[in-house]
């Protein structure tokens, strides 16, 4: 006992007593040991040893927005229908036929829409479009809208009546200069952004190796995978420089079809190896460039999924191939759900549910918005679509909005700024290089 006491006193005099007692595994009846659990208590804090108090990690804007949404609002975020008319607060004939006496603003509010898509019949003038997009953003209230269009340029140009006339991808690809693809995308993005549009369903990432292709053709940058990949990557970066969200389409590749998926269901007979060599490179390049969204194709690809379902409804293709193998973490959008290619086997409600189950986040141009909204709601409430699966899609959509500066507050376009940007001398000079 005397020997032990002497040892302890020596340890104490060297300042090591606390360390020695804390390091002892048992501690017996020591006053510093925890009364239960067999663990010694921590050493008494000194000013030098005090750790800063821990606080819960702050919620991100996306997490905060998600936590404040109910199920109806979350389901609404998935939908991007056509809107009819030219003003947010007026009822057009087509709007009347589809939604009754409801203005676009009321439709946005009723279904808690995450986005809308615009077409030429929504466009009269620069000032009118700015007023329209601003009015729809005001109607969306808590979560700003994705306001989208298909401004590929060339054959598919929804805003040709007010924007600079740039050539399509085929003409740009023929120049063989990816920097031109980037410059055109940046200029296009700036003009759309000035109008209040924030998502372009471009660039086309298909490799058009079939000269008889009735739906892609000159919409693609060409028929050489490596060249198309370089053009697509440059275009994605150009859109981003303009503050515009971009979309690579039509996954897994629509370039070798002789059927138009607007009117039928194409079948692509490429082997897996051919897909990897021909179709995949532009999509990989787009993902590497940070593309915001990838649009699915209404095509059957038996070597990637033998079920006979189009890629839009295929979990092996969208979740297995695009998500897991290519590593895409952004938004997966359907192609238009009013097209014949996706409506061959299932009714409209089932199509929307199956698309979500396959991995889709954004349901574009539903053929019957009320029916399809109710179908997805019912699937969530029954558990067929889990709450976790729904939250995954909403999180991706909110992340896209956050990344493009849309989540904090609804953007407001300026008619004066739009008049300055659209058809500017700089943009007209760029367009003139292709004449």
UniProtKB/TrEMBL annotation:
Pfam families hit by this protein: Glyco_hydro_3
Coiled-coil annotated residue ranges, if any: none
Residues in Glycoside hydrolase family 3 N-terminal domain copies: 71-400
Database matches in Gene3D superfamilies: Glycoside hydrolase, family 3, N-terminal domain
Composition skew (Low complexity), residue ranges: 31-60
BP-aspect Gene Ontology terms: carbohydrate metabolic process; peptidoglycan turnover
Enzyme Commission identifier(s): 3.2.1.52
Record-linked PANTHER family: BETA-HEXOSAMINIDASE (PTHR30480:SF13), BETA-HEXOSAMINIDASE-RELATED (PTHR30480)
Protein name: beta-N-acetylhexosaminidase
Species assigned in the record: Nonomuraea terrae
Gene designation: nagZ
């Amino acid at each position: 006992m005397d020997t032990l006491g002497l040892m302890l006193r020596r340890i104490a005099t060297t300042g090591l007593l606390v360390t020695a007692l804390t390091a002892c595994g048992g501690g017996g009846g020591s006053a510093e040991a925890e009364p239960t659990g067999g663990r010694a208590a921590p050493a008494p804090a000194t000013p030098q040893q005090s750790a800063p108090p821990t606080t819960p990690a702050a919620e991100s804007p996306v997490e905060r927005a998600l936590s404040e949404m109910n199920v109806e609002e979350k389901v609404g975020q998935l939908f991007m229908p056509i809107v009819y008319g030219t003003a947010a607060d007026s009822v057009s004939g087509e709007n009347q036929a589809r939604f009754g006496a409801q203005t676009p603003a009321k439709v946005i509010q009723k279904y808690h829409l995450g986005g809308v898509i615009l077409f030429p019949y929504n466009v009269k003038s620069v000032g009118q479009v700015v007023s329209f997009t601003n009015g729809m953003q005001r109607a969306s209230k808590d979560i700003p809208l994705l306001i989208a269009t298909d401004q590929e340029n060339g054959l598919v140009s929804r805003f040709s009546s007010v924007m600079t006339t740039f050539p399509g991808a085929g003409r740009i690809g023929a120049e063989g200069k990816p920097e031109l693809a980037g410059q055109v995308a940046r200029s296009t993005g700036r003009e759309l952004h000035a109008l209040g549009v924030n998502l372009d369903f471009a660039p086309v990432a298909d490799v058009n190796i079939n000269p008889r292709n009735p739906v892609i053709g000159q919409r693609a940058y060409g028929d050489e995978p490596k060249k198309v990949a370089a053009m697509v990557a440059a275009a994605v970066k150009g859109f981003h420089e303009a503050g515009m969200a971009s979309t690579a389409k039509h996954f897994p590749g629509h370039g070798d079809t002789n059927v138009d998926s607007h009117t039928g269901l194409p079948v692509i007979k490429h082997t897996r190896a051919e897909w990897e060599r021909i179709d995949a490179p532009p999509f990989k390049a787009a993902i590497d460039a940070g593309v915001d969204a990838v649009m699915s194709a209404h095509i059957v690809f038996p070597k990637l999924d033998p079920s006979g379902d189009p890629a839009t409804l295929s979990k092996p293709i969208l979740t297995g191939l695009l998500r897991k193998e290519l590593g895409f973490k952004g938004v997966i959008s359907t192609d238009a759900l009013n097209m014949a290619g996706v409506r061959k086997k299932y009714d409209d409600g089932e199509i929307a549910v199956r698309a979500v189950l396959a991995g889709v986040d954004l349901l574009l141009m539903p053929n019957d918005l009320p029916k399809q909204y109710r179908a997805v709601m019912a699937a969530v409430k029954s558990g067929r679509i889990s709450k976790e699966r729904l939250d995954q899609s909403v999180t991706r959509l909110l992340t896209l909005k956050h990344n493009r500066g849309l989540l904090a507050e609804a953007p407001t376009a300026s008619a004066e700024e739009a008049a300055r940007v659209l058809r500017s001398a700089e943009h007209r000079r760029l367009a003139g290089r292709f004449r």
